[in-house]
Each structure stands twice: as structure tokens, then as C-alpha cells.
Amino acid sequence: MAKTKEQPKILRPPVVVVMGHVDHGKTKILDYIRKTKVAEGESGGITQHIGAYEIEHNGKKITFIDTPGHEAFSAMRSRGARVADIAILVVASDEGVKPQTKEAITIIKNARIPFVVALNKIDKPEADPQRVRAELAEQEVLVEGWGGAVPIVEVSAKTGDHIDDLIETILLVAEVEEIGKTDGNVPLGVVIESHMDHKRGATATLLLREGTFEKKDVLLIGGTVETMKIFENFRGEALTRATASMPIVLSGLTSVPVIGQEFRAFATKEAAAEHRESQEKLEDTKKASPEEPATDGRPLLAIILKTDVSGSREALEEIVVSLQFPEVGNTLLKNEVGDVNESDVKLAASATHSAIFAFRVATPPVIKQLAENTGVIIISKDVIYEILQAVKEHMSLLIPPEVRKTEIGRAKILAIFKSSMSSRQVVGGKVESGRLKRGGKIDVMRNKEIIGTGKITGLQQQKHEADEVMPGAEFGLMTDCPAPITAGDTLVVFVEDEIRKKL
User: Fold this and answer.
1) What is the pLDDT of residues 424-479, one digit of tens each?
2) CB 88 within 8 A of CB 166
3) Which site in 27, 172, 380, 494 is 20 to 30 Å from 12, CA atoms measured?
């Protein structure tokens, strides 16, 4: 059973993701917070990039996921789960709402998490915060003072003005929403990043969502039982214990876990293995249930859509998800505005039967190379009809082909030259119709019934090697048929063609 500890209810530190349009200052805000808050009272600061870090402000902690398009955030959204508790929507006060701002708003609303608007670049002469508030209202984001309850803070990542106010607003939202209220009994979380380190082996960054675990505990990550050989915090310092909302690094794992995978902690390897077996049985039961349409046995194409504008995104999503057939279906992992990026390729690589469909957006050369190296398919089109045709073509490839047998000849067996304990047999006979063909498949007929099937592995005519033997000619052949052939049997030679259905 899972490791449990009797603890009073606690409010764990909130986990925050920062989102917004490119160049509106997401990274600069995070950099300013990291430099001013992580370094306070600490020596060395952060020594490595691990995708998440923890700060402390007036005795209270916050964990930041430091990249808005983070792979785990996208992957967990596609599974209906949540990595972040609160989002910061960054909007440049001199530029206002842009396409990626709109996309970020959609993502935040779909994730159903509270958010704070950070109106950045307020120090610039061109800043027009009132105009931006109006543009946000057009996107149904009503901030405080404009008829809504969404907190808004005017900041400057360049000068640091009001960054503390932003942090305090986050903590206030966490307190009001009672974010992270938990008994803390079952230690569980999600894989944020993972890679193979040449010196340290399989390495993963984990975000502990609930509970507490210690170095002596055992983790079940996906379906793999792991012990903690190298256990560090986000600064690269050795740990013996981790608490809720902490980002941690594990190295020396037996395999590289998939980004977005969940994990749990257990007291022993036996307990972890027992839980894994129970989960596998539960999954088998779900797959066997006719009441589960998502696991009805049909192959599913996992789709990542990338589009130029939100209008295209919405139109394509509506049509693509409706492409469901008795033989095959699809599932939408991700649907975003913007160019194809590394996050998209990694998400596609983690799924079975996946493809990225790009509508009027670019795929940078480095991303094309990454896709090629990981076996990820990217299809780029400029017409919606062509995207839909491409989706159907790739779904068609998942339908098992119909195998059609075509008879090409018949022969009567007259003599048995060699028969071994294995399936190899050498026989002789005469072609009655059609032709015999080296490499052709055969059915052995006796009394009008098929007693065995094999392949012609060798063929001779008049003691010379032959590729084909025509009607009326005698032959000798070698076959791998496992059924013993006797004089008087008929060989039916055939070829097989795979007929693929097109949707």
C-alpha cells in the first residue's frame, strides 16, 4: 500500500505557471523573481536549469514552473490533470493583447485555475494600461476595477517595480482559494522534465504535489519502481526529505520517465509493486468494459494541432474531433496557436500513434531535425480541407489491412524426397495449372481440406534452379510447411495482398 503519514491538514505552497505572448516579458519577470528571491539568504543560488524552482517571500513559499509552454504542463492538460494551481498572464502594457495572449487565456480557462494579470513594461513611455484593460475585457477577462474580480498588477520586470506586489497577490489568491489544502497523506506528483545524463544516468525533475517523502522511500513512476540514489533540490543540494510543492531532481534511475507521468511514494519495493499490479488489473478491467468508449479497442490517432490564429484553431478542432469511425478514432492531445516547437515534438514522441498537424504555421529547421530524430510526423498544410484529408489518411494507416489471397497455381505431389523432424521437406510433383513460384506461399490440400500452410523456399526443374515452373512441367521443391506432405496431396500456390481501407 502507498506510504502514508498522519498529518494535520496543511496548505502547501502554490505552484505557479507564467504565460503570455512572446516578448511580453514572461522570462524577464521570472528571472527577476529568481535573482531577488532565491538568492535571499542562500549561497550559490541556482546551479542548474531544472524547469522549476522555489522562492520564499515573507516566510511563505511559491513554486514556479519556469517555462510557459512547459512540456509537462501541456501533457497533463491533455490528460485532464493540473500541474499548476495559479497562472500569471503577462501582457505588455505597450502592445496589449496579442494572438498568444488569447491562446494563453484559453489554456488558463480550460485548466480552470485562478489567475493574476501582470501588466508588464509599465515603465515604458508608450505604456497604455487602460487600453490593455479594455482589450482584456473584449476577451472576457474582467479585471478588478473593470467590473470583474481578476487581480491585476502593473509591474516592470526591467526595474523590478511592483514585483513584490505581484508575489503578494499570488499568495493572497492561494489563501483565498485555499489552494493546496490537503491531508498530505499520500506522496504523489508529476514528472516535469527528464533526460539521460552521461555522468549521472537517467535523470528526472519531479514536482511533488501532495504529501512528504524521504530518500529511503521507493517511488513508482509510471510503471517503474525506482529507488532514490541521487536526491537533490532545485539548487543541486542533497536532500533527505521533500515536502509538498517542492521541485526535486532524481538521478541514477533505471529508465528515463515520460514527461507528464505521475508518481507515488511507498515505504517498500513490495508495496510499490503491489500497487502497480492493482493499477494494471484496473486498467485491464477498464479496457474490457464496453461502457468505456475511449478504450473500445479501436486504434486512436493522437493529434497535436498547431494553427495560425484562434479562429482556425476552433474550426479545425470542431471538425477533427468529429472524425470518428467504427474502425478507428482520434484523440486531441493539444491544440494551440503558434509555430511547431520542441514541446509539441516531445509530447508527440510520448504518445502511441501520433502526428503533428500544422496549419499555416512554420516548423523551424531545428524542430524538423528533432522530429526526424524521434520519429515524429509533422504534416504542414495551408488549406483546412488538406489538413482534414491528411488526418484521415493517417487514421486510415491504423486500420488493420484486409489480407486477400489470390491463387496462382496448383500442383500434384508425386514423390517425397526428404522429410525431417523439422518443418523442412523436399517433394516432387507436376504443375496442373497456373505456375509455381519461388517464395510463393502454399496451402497443402488433402481430401479437399487444408492440412497445412508454408512457403516455397527452393524450386528446381530438371535438376536446375528455377524461379518459376509452368503448367505440365515436373518439379522439385523445398518447403517449410510443418504438416507432413504425402504423395497425392495438392499444393495450392497463392500470393497475399494487403488491402488498406481509405476513410
Assistant:
1) 899 999 999 999 999 999 999 999 899 999 999 999 999 899 999 999 999 999 99
2) yes
3) 27
